[in-house]
């Protein structure tokens, strides 16, 4: 006799840049272009304490964000 357990899995089927709205191609649950993803839980001493913010940026919008910094980001290769 076979017994089965029903499993539910989540797989990404679409990513949209929160800044410009560009759709990033996804194949087999994997993005086919560069995507900068943020998932941040704000903590104590913040006006956003308890909030969780999530967003995705395409590579072009990420580059624009980085260019707007007064102090450059540390980038290692």
Q: In words, what does this structure look like?
A:
The structure is a single chain. By secondary structure, this protein is α+β, with helices and mostly antiparallel strands. Helices cover 12% and strands 29% of the residues. It contains one helix and six strands; from the N terminus they run E-E-E-E-E-E-H. Strand 3 (26-27) and strand 4 form a beta hairpin.
Task: Please give a handful of descriptors for the protein shown.
6 strands; extended; alpha+beta; two-stranded antiparallel sheet; 77 residues
Ends apart, CA distance between termini: 54 Å
Q: List the secondary-structure elements in sequence, H or E.
A: EEEEEEH
Low-pLDDT segments: none
Average pLDDT confidence is: 93
Residues in β-strands, percent: 25-35%
Structural class: alpha+beta
Helix percentage range: 10-25%
Number of helices: 1
Which oligomeric state applies?
single chain
What is the topology, as strand order, of the major beta sheet? 1-2
Précis, in short:
Helices cover about 10% and strands about 30% of the residues. By secondary structure, the protein is of the alpha+beta class. It has a two-stranded antiparallel sheet with strand order 1-2.
